[in-house]
Amino acid sequence: MTAGLSPRLLAGVAPSWLGPLLTVFGVLIVVLTIAAGLIWYERRLLSLFQDRYGPNRVGPAGLLQVIADTFKILFKEDWVPPFADKRVFIVAPSIVLMTALLSFMVVPVASGIVIADVNIGLLFVLGMSSLAVYSVVLAGWSSHSKYSLVGGLRAAAQMVSYEVFMGLSLVGVVLMAGSFDLSRIVEAQRGLWYVVPQFIGFVVFVLAGFAETRRIPFDIPEADSELVAGYHTEYSGMKFGLFMVGEYVAITLISALIATLFFGGWLGPWLPGIVWFLLKTLLFISFFILARATFPRPRYDQLMALGWKAMLPLSLVNLLVTGAIVVANR
Amino acid sequence: MSGPADNHPPLTTDVVTTGRLARRGQTLAPRVYRTVASTLHGIGVVFMHAWHRRDTVQYPEEMVYLPPRYRGRIVLSRDPAGEERCVACYLCAVACPVDCISLQATTDEHGRRYPEWFRINFSRCIFCGFCEDACPTYAIQLTPDVEMSEYERANMVYEKEDLLISGPGKYHDYDFYRVAGLAIGGKDKGEAANEAPPTDVRDLLP
Asked: Which domain range does residue B14 map to?
């Protein structure tokens, strides 16, 4: 594992561990700030699409709304329902945030700026997103509430099935780049972004991303109108806040992955790589919000039908065709 | 009796079944095309809304337009002569479904009835306008003003001097005592507007 800012930048000035440490805290702070800012960004953008203003009172353009919301949620009573399975109930929300944050470890922000440049980066991300299912399922189970339980069950089925298509849709990219290393995948897109040859993979990945982050239109585990709040019905205060931050970090992660895997990550003319990466990520975050403004929630069986009847064959065909072309060109 | 009705799918309440029957006979390609096209079209429509005018009225800076007949804060109006219109008939208090109006009738030296005190508890008032409908003299009126928040609940109780306005409100020319047949303060029987002098029953001789 090589890591950190480029060594020549800090050579002789600082001890060798400072570079990686800076990267770790830099990424952590930036990701958490983006996740918090997304609360404001989503509300404003959603309002824009719905002919409203959204929060525009606290601070310039309502930006300080984030701070107001944070303080509010921090000062709420930290309450565990007496009927809940206390230990699991407390652990569950931290898992969702932990797995999403850990995934950022392998996402290259710019050329050479990555916390852990592991050669199984993509597998690590997929593994972490599989672990995120535990958070939702355990939250639903430990709450001892019918809404939570139904939400948790739905989450389990939805996320486990979409995990499959998410993985399959990315195999095409891996075949073309010849590596699971995200930096290598970005470098392989110098000639042509993978969104062109891997368009089907891109579409499947975006849809699977919606399902994995449990966002509208695939927010069936939450489903406010049927399940109160689904798996986090019984949560309040900062424990609920962790679910929310975890969701926003997951959106950022999926958007960053779309940018990295299909839109050339940090590659781009004129601007520095990190700016390109952030711009592309922001674009896909905005797309998540646009989709939220557009689509109604499908019925549960429709979601499953879309997954197993459309996404699975599509990604398998994509995989076969890509594999055949890669082998033929070898 | 056979006709087009025979081709109609059997009636059922099952959405899944009707959906499948409605799509029966269609090949896959147009269905996929329609689904994808409508999805993208939906995204496009919502995206274009970013350039639409926003519907929100930024309230404290911008005011919402309230039409003249809006049912807001209640006032007691005066007739064109500047006298109180209210004749203290209690009809508003009776009509009020939440009993938020209370008053006490009294009479002045001309025999004209007026409320000695008049009290509306706006923390109870539901702004239904029944009092305005019940009022025989257009005295009690609802106005397009809704900005009446208070920090103290007791301040929501409006007394007569808070309610009474200096003008005639929505009905500029109406003067109850000028059209009513009642003899009062210098205006005798038969002197009201559109009123014939009273018939002298003893004068009806052939």
From this structure: 8-49
